[in-house]
Structure formats: C-alpha cells, structure tokens
Amino acid sequence: MRNYDGAETPDNSPKQHSQDMSDKPTATHNEPLSANRPMLPFAADATHDPEDPLRNAYADSEKYDSQSDSDTRVGDISDVQNASKRPTKAETSGRKKLTTTQAVIIFITNEVGIGMLSLPSALNVLGFFPGILCIIVMGMLSLYTAYNLIQYWRKYPYMLNIVDYGRVLGGPWVEGIFAVGFLINMALISASAVVTLTIGLNTVSDHATCTVVFTMVAAIAMWAMCVPHSMRFVSWASWPCTASIIATVLIVMITLGVQGPRSPELPLNLKAIGSPSFTQAVSAFLNICFAYTGNQAFPTVLAEMENPSRDFPRAVTIEKCITTTIYVIVATTVYALSGEQVASPAIGSLQTTMAKVSYAVAFIGLLGTGLIFGMTSARYLHVFFMRHINLLKRNKTERRASIASDPSRGRRSSLAMPETSKKTEWAVWLFAVTLFWVVVWILANAIPVFNSLLNISSSLLLSWFTWGVTVLFWFHLNWHGKWRSTWQKKATAAFNVFIMILVFFMMIPGMYASIDALLTVFADPNQQDWDATLHPTIIKWEMSRPPHTSTPLARCAPPPAQSNGE
C-alpha cells in the first residue's frame, strides 16, 4: 500500500478495510469508507464539501491534517474519529469533544420541553390506553430513525449537519432544499421559544411592560447564550435547563395532587378509550408525533462526539428511553389528576398563583430550548459562510500562483492554503448568531400569521426532517440490489415504507388544518390569537385574545383587567 507521498508502506490493515482508493465507493461496498479516509481538520474549510473524500485523495493530500485537537477554535470540528476503530486514550486526551453523557444531556434538552405538558390533553382525546400506546410506539420509531442517521454517517463520515446529508443524498439542489427547509424550521421553532418566554414574562409580571419589549429581552438572552461556540458549553448549560423543565413538571403534578384542577368539584371523567372525531384524533396524534422531533439537530451533535460510531447509538438509545419514560409518567399522572379538565398545556389546569410559579421556574428551560436550536442553526450558517470565504481565498491564491510559477509543473494541489485568522472566524461566528436571532425576533413579532406559519412548518418540515429523510437515507445506502438480498433486508425496506406512509399521514392532515387556519386569519384578522400556538415540542398555548388587540402594535398595551376575580 502507498501512502500519500508515494512511498511503499507495509499493509497491516485488516483485510476488510482494504480497497482501491482510485475507485469511488458505492453502497455495494462491504468495506467501511472510514478505513482509509483522510482526516478533516477544519469543518469550515471550503475543501470540506460533502462528496466522496477519497475522490481526490492523491491530488489534494496536503490539505488534510489529522492533528486537529479542539472544537474551541471557532468552526473547528476536529477530525471525525475513524468509524472502524476505538480511539485510544492518547488520541483523545487533548481533544475537547463530546462524551456519551454530554451527548445524552444535549439530546434530552433538545427534545424534552414544556411541550410534554400537552400530552395529557392527547390522552383526554384518544383515551388512556391508545394515548400511551401512541407515545411508546412513536418513541420506538423515533429511535429507529435516529439509528438510520448513524448508519448514513458511517458510510459518509465527513458530514457535519443535516444539510450535508442532503448534499450526499442528491447533490447541490437537494442540499439547497435541505438548507432552506432546515433554516426556516429552526427559525420558527426558536421564534416560538421566544414567544413562549414572552408569555411567561407577561404572566409573571402581570403585563408590566410592552410585549414587544419582552420579545426583545427573550431574544437577546437567547442570543447571548449562543455566543459561546463550543458544544461542550451547550452540554454544561443543558443540565440546569433540563432540571428546570423537570422541576416545572413536578410542580404541576404536585399542585394538581394537592389542590386539584381549577374546578375540583367537577368529576374527572377519565376515559380508557376515547371516541374522538377524525380531526380531533389526528390533532392529538400529531401532538404526540411532534414531541419526538429532536432528531433533526442530532447530526450536528453527532459530528462533535469523540467516537460517533460507538457512542451515538448508546447515547440516543439512553435519551429515547428516558424521554419516553418521562412522557408516559407525565401524561398519565397529569391526566389522572385533571381528567377532562386538563388544559393544553397542563399549566393551564393550575390555579393562578401556582401557574405563575410554574412559568417562572420554566424560564431557564425555555432558554435552553433557544440555546439548542439557535446553536444548531448558527453552526450551520458559520460553516456555510466560512466555506465560501475560504473558497474565495483559495481561488485567489491559486490565480496568483499560476501567474508567478512555472506552468509546466502544474501542481496546484501543493499550494499552501492561507489560514483564516481567529478574528475573522469570530467575526463570522458573531455575524451568523446575530443574523439568525434578528430573523427570529422579527418572526416572533409577525402576528397575525406567525401561528399558522409555525403550524405549516411543523406539519411539512418536522415530519420530513425527523422521519421522512431518514427513510431516504436508508434506501440510498441499500438501493443497488441490497434491499432485496435477504428477507431481513426486505422486511426492513417494508418497515421504512411504512414510516414514509406515516410521514404523509402526518403531513397532509396537518397541512390542511394549518392552511385552513391561515386562510381564516387573512379573511378575518380579528380571529388571530394574541399570544401564540407554539411548537408542540415546546409548549402549546391556547389563550384567548384580549379585546382591542386586532393589530400587532396593540400588543404594547396591557390587556384590560379581567372581571372573573382572578
């Protein structure tokens, strides 16, 4: 075997890892691609495009360096560990990358939010046993689709985010579609987190100031949390955020157990099996499905792990088991204590004072939601900008060298690539974070159509990024006859087809309801919600609009005092 300098070296690699590097690997290869893969030191490098890294392994060998050591340098993802071997202690001692425990807590913070308090209302619609069955089944399906991500990464281990997966799947056009959908989805989810925090501030302070000011305070707080660029910071910050969410849920359950719901004199009327209409059943089912939509942010965390091939499956399995257990406990307990009086979210079932306490405790958890989704989006934008900046520098350097050097040599690959300064990297990072949160703040104030846009995004984008695209990844890996090779493969292919059918079921009814609501808003602006109907994985608020708030600017005036004594 020859090294990149052309010298002969003994071939001590395992037999299954050897392959001809001049051939582009396909899905029919049995050898892992990572066995002879060049290491990628700088994720934001313009040369780090998601295509087969072995295609130009000899031509551009100078641009690869396996000695990257830290993700604390902005945009530096280090070399992704060889998927075929366990890294030694010496190899990872100087690298600040995510361990299994850190990845688990990020995944939990990413997926478990106050939105789980909308699950008891789903049980009230579907009934106790069908609701619990849906929660468990969708958790298992979510775990399977997450496993599809690591299978795809093992074949193409240079991908950094879900958009890179799109480029590998279908080229630049699919990459563009993934990028637009991903950014729109992340921006709307983050905007819903801003609005949720704004509602909490309004509730706790009794509308002490203009709502637009509260949205600005919430957006600035989340922007500040996204300025540190390391995913290790996200893992540290995820601990108090997750504790805040758990504390909020405990307050709700304990308060319901002690005080009961808002009208304790009324019967609970618990349902073992509900009898909803089709629309009600679909809405409740979608609430459960969208509680497991954290998978779209997993590829960004996966690229930061010490050994993704080994650690990601165990991390995501632990997270899904914990998440599903929490969902089942919270849904069953709150529904059993509230009965048919359960609100969505369950905080609305509490009496006024304890509701304010719950909102106050939830603030840190809401900041964590903004941190996770904001960091995921900003890291993609940063990589995107740095790739194009470095590409411009590379082209400029090559043009100058081609004029000054002897054209007969023709070795442009040996040109030194100018390094981007840390100041430039920091400037690009701050620009990416600021740009994202400015757009988020504008969306958070885009009443009256924000609610309907968010629902459309949830129905169309979340169903695809969480479930649909992973099915495409599996078929991309197994398309060249492999899915028909054994009965196990055929069964897995049929299972993936079932998931795709489920995606269309989630998408079509949800899109119909969302577009109908949007048309209603345009037909009668007075029908808008004053606050928001937020993303199901965060919280779903259904609060009546105060009088005289038919325009967005009217939100700056506090609502009139209510006459119900509260």
Automatic annotation (TrEMBL):
Comp. bias (Pro residues): 557-566
One term under GO cellular component: membrane
Chief subcellular location: membrane
Keywords of the record: Membrane, Transmembrane, Transmembrane helix
GO molecular function ontology, one term from the record: L-amino acid transmembrane transporter activity
Disordered: region residues: 1-95, 545-566
Protein localization: Membrane
Topology relative to the membrane: Multi-pass membrane protein
Pfam families in the cross-refs: Aa_trans
Lineage top rank: taxon: Eukaryota
Keyword Membrane: yes
TM annotation in the entry: 103-122, 128-150, 177-199, 205-224, 236-258, 278-295, 316-337, 357-381, 426-447, 453-475, 495-515
Family membership: Belongs to the amino acid/polyamine transporter 2 family.
Name this polypeptide is given: Transmembrane amino acid transporter protein-domain-containing protein
UniProt organism field: Paraphoma chrysanthemicola
Phylogenetic lineage: Eukaryota, Fungi, Dikarya, Ascomycota, Pezizomycotina
